[in-house]
Amino acid sequence: MKRFVLSLLCLFAWNAEVFGASRLKDITDVQGIRENLLVGYGLVIGLNGTGDSMRNAPFTEQSARSMLQRLGVGVPAGSLKVRNIAAVAVTGRLPPFVSRGERIDVTVSSLGDATSLAGGTLVMTPLSAADGRAYAVAQGAVSVTGFSATGQAESLSQGVPTGGRIANGALIEREITADFNGAAELSLKIRNADFGTAAAVADIINTFAASAYGGPIAQEIDVRTVTLKRPKAVTATRLMAQIGNLVVEAQTPARIVIDEKTGTIVIGDDVRVSPVAIAQGNITIRVTETPVVVQPEPLSAGETAIQPSTAVQAEQAGSKIGLLEGPSLQRLVHGLNRMGLKPPGIIAILQAIKTAGALQAELVIQ
């Protein structure tokens, strides 16, 4: 699919010879093969006075005392007054088929009132999944890209200094086992659900299977699912490797996506607009305040006063009526360009065309 992005004051066009042709592995996922989310609670130590204050983050003091007690150091309650410790949440993703002893990246985020995690080290932190079991242990120096500097009259910050990352910072301690090669049936999930794509996926797999295995193995189930019956002569891993590079012409619905916050508009290649006449004009209202100082008469008992003076002007830019017709995406974009519209005006016009019933596409506003 060819896409045209309208952002800020420009209209950009991307041209491609065959954009809809994709490999099977790029548009589908195998059901059951997915990542698992991990989360843990830990402490970052070694901060240069930028950690949590024990008064505002009492859980940091409790965690630090518990850690020291496990190490054989007794600490009375309320005795910790340092600012070099921060309580953090540690998150990561457990990839499928990962083995014990492998490493994954983790993200560290402050939970208290720490101002920066730069220079800190995460102490050994177990990472658990949704079942409550620990699958990895994280530890290491925190890499922070943001910074913050504050003086008496000015402050400067860039990025987020209270969050960081540890590359290969978690060690896998428990793996999720599964007999993938022994599965008799596999399910492919289409990422962009479409009936035409599901049928095309089943057809291209059966065409390959007829010559490779002597018969069809795929069957479309619904708009998103295609099931495969694994031939006995091949493992599931080899089967997915063989069909993964098959090229499929993926079909997508006619859709226009609008992000009003950034003024970005993405128009799909299949979008069509019935002939409509459009008039678009802008009204500019200018309010000018010109206070006037009024002086009292000589030798009078009056006081100097300020009298308000307000001027309100309204201007309307000349609007033109244009004919917009989009039997093809190129003509639609050309028509919008000829009207000389900015992204806010284009967004308003597309919404009005949709309301008028002339826009043959789904309008998605984010």
Structure commentary:
With 366 residues, this protein is an alpha+beta fold. The chain folds into 3 domains: 22-33 and 180-249, Gyrase A, domain 2, CATH 3.30.1360; 36-172, no CATH class; 256-286 and 318-365, no CATH class. Helix content is 18%, strand content 39%. A 6-stranded antiparallel barrel has the order 5-6-7-12-9-8. It is flat, with a radius of gyration of 32 Å.
Q: TL;DR?
A:
The chain contains six helices and 26 strands.
Record keyword descriptors for this entry.
3 domains; 366 residues; Gyrase A, domain 2; six-stranded antiparallel barrel; disordered N terminus; flat; alpha+beta
Strand arrangement in the largest pleated sheet: 5-6-7-12-9-8
Strands, total number? 26
**With helices defined by DSSP (H or I, 4 residues minimum), what is the helix count?**
6
Strand content: 35-45%
Instruction: Determine the N-to-C terminus distance.
Output: 21 Å
Q: Can you tell me the overall shape?
A: flat
Helix content: 10-25%
Q: On the 0-100 scale, what is the average pLDDT?
A: 82
Structural class: alpha+beta
**Which regions are unreliable across 5 or more consecutive residues at pLDDT < 50?**
1-19
Based on CA atoms alone, the radius of gyration comes out at 32 Å
How many domains make up the coordinates? 3
Instruction: Characterize the main sheet.
Output: 6 strands, antiparallel, barrel
